[in-house]
Amino acid sequence: MNSVFGPPPGSRSGFIEPGPEGIAPGLGPALAPASAPVIAPGACFPTPAVPDGIFAALDLGTNNCRMLVARPVQPRSAPPYAPVADFRVVDSFSRITRLGEGLSRSGALSVEAMDRTIDALKRCAEKMDRRRVTASRQVATEACRRAANCDVFLERVVRETGIQLEIISAHEEATLALKGCAALLDRTIPYALIFDIGGGSTEVLFVRVEGASLAVEGCISLPMGVVTVAEDCGGGDLCQRTYSGVMEHVSRLLAPFEAHHGIRDKIAAGVVQMIGTSGTVTTLGGLHLGLDRYDRAAVDGLSLDFSVLESISRSLCQMTVNQRAAQPCIGWQRSDLVLGGCAILEAICGLWPVGRLRVADRGLREGLLMDLMHPEALQVAPGQLHQF
Question: How much is the average pLDDT of 192-197?
Fold first, then answer.
C-alpha cells in the first residue's frame, strides 16, 4: 500500500438548528484543564459573563467550506457538572469546494480549486458583513497544511475577500473538534475515542472522562481522508481489494497508537465510548434512518451499532457512482468520496470494537465558537500528538 499512499505521516453542545425565526440554541460543555485535578463545580469555574456581539467560526477543509454565525447566551448550570455554555445560531454556510482536489498528486492547490474556494469565501465574507460580526476566527486545515503554494492562496484570499485564514495544526484541529462535540459524551464512561474523517486527513483522540473534566490522553492524525483516498486509489469506485487495502493501511498506521494506550483492553473492560464527527458517519446515519433528505436534527446524537455501519458500507460498495449519487443523503458531489470514508471508518471500528458509536453532526466550528464566546468554560489541555 505504500506505493498508493506514500510515506507514513510524521514526514510532515446541544443540537444547533435554526428554528422558526432562524435562531435556536447550541450547547457546549464546560471543561477543566486536563493537567489539573478534577474541580468541584462552582469552586474554580465562576459563571462566565456573556460577551456582547455576534461571533463567526469558519472552517475551510480539504473538501468543504463551512461557517456558523452565532450570538452567545447566558451559560446554564448543569449539576453535577460545570456550567454549560450556550449560543444561538443566526446564520450558516456550507459548500463543497474541493480545495484539495489533485493535491495528493501535485503537492499544490490548483487554480480551479482556489477559484471555487475563494468564491465560497466571498459568500462567507458577505454574510459576516451583513450580520455585523464583531469577532471571528477563520481556520484552514489539511489542504493548506500540505500545499506548497499555500502562501499564494492565502494572499489571494485576503486580497479578494478580506478574510485572513489561520492554518491550524492537526493537534489543535482535533482539540477543537473535541470541544465542539463534547456535549455528546456520556460522563459516566471513563474513556472516549473520538474521530473525525475529513477530506485530507483523519484525526483520532483518546480521551479520559473525569466528571466535568476531560483529559486528552493522546491524539493521532493520519494523512488520509475521503478526497485523498479517492484520488490515490484512482477514483471513487473502490474494488474489494482496494477497499480492503485502505482498511489494512489505516489499521497499520493506527497500531502503534493502540499499543501505546492499550485501548483494546479498556474496550474489553467496557469502559470506552466512541463518537464519530464527520460527513462519513452522518451520511451513514441518514441512510440508516431512510431520510428523503438529510436532517441534522434527526442524525446528530444518533447511536449506531457497528453491524449497521458495516452493512450500509458494504451495500454502498455494491453500487455504481450513479446509484450512490441517487441516494438522498449522498448526492453527486459526494458520490465518489463516500467509499473512502467507509473504508477508513471500518478500519477504525475493526481495530477498536466498541460495538456502537454516537454520531456527531458538530465539531470544529462549534469548538471555535466556544473558544470565542466562553473561553473560561472550555479549557482543554490537549494530549501529545502521536509521532510515527
Answer: 96
